[in-house]
Amino acid sequence: MLNYTIRRLLSVIPVMLVVSIIVFLLVHLTPGNPAFIILGEDASPEAIAKLEEQLGLNEPLYIQFFDWIKQVITGDLGTSVYSAQPVTELIFGNFGPTISLMVLSLLFILVISIPLAILIVSLRKTILDPLFTNASLLGVSIPEFWLAILLVLGFGVTFPIFPVAGYMPLAEGFGPWIYHLLLPAFVLALVEIGIIARMLRDSMLDSVNQDYTKTARAKGVRERDVLMKHVFANALIPTTTVLGATVAGLLGGTVIIETLFTIPGIGQLLIDSIHRRDYPVIQGVVLFIAAIYVLVNLIVDLLYAFLDPRIRYD
């Protein structure tokens, strides 16, 4: 297990290097000039050129890349050209709302999708099974931004039950914190609920008529115990793979949701930085998201050994 973990951690290095190259090129080849945006339309060409020199934007791309990557290796993601704050400080300063949104969304996903899948499998011979299949397909197909707009209009404007903008830190109290996050967290979770519930249901149906479940029933084990102790346990491994990708994908989904609900998190920081052509912040945020995605996938791989003792890593 230790050797496998070390190999996986070493394999992260080339992955992150490729990600950093792609991000750097996409950011710098996109039309727009940070110096022009900072100084405004009335700035003279001389002032813009001077600011570009101060920011190092007049250097060739490969020199800018190597200067940046040397900073990244030391843990320094650079400094924002807009606010002059360290990028690392900006990321962790905005990470609180994002992780709060992700945790609450993940809670929605687990609390709704797992019991729902188990219920549908237990009622697999009824009309609820095809209804669930169609409903889950509909849930997966709904765009997050469209659903968010509908919920904002329904529960924020027509029936003003929930706030549609802003964020309250957990330090201000659990009630205000969860009150501001319920609506965006539900929107972020809805698509993933359909995916996880459908995946778990399909995996359980694959196991429900296997020989070991027939043997358990022949021994007099109750159907509920067969589903929970045998079918559900064996369906966890493929579902864990999807759940791991879901957890990492939630971080990407926050970009849209935080923008729509004006939540000051990582996603909002990324969108604002794109508008400002704040290259260091864009590069740092995308690299941070990619690192979390890789880390989550590593954790999921290591979880397999705990979920299934037959799995061994050499």
TrEMBL record:
Alphabetical UniProt keywords: Cell membrane, Membrane, Transmembrane, Transmembrane helix, Transport
Transmembrane segments: 9-29, 99-123, 144-165, 177-197, 231-261, 281-307
InterPro entries associated with the record: BPD_transp_1_N (IPR045621), MetI-like (IPR000515), MetI-like_sf (IPR035906)
Matching Pfam families: BPD_transp_1, BPD_transp_1_N
Major location (coarse): membrane
Origin: domain of life: Bacteria
Every ABC transmembrane type-1 domain range: 95-304
PROSITE patterns: ABC_TM1
Compartments reported by the entry: Cell membrane
Topology term for the membrane: Multi-pass membrane protein
Family membership: Belongs to the binding-protein-dependent transport system permease family.
Protein's UniProt name: Peptide ABC transporter
Source organism (scientific name): Terribacillus saccharophilus
Biological classification of the source: Bacteria, Bacillati, Bacillota, Bacilli, Bacillales
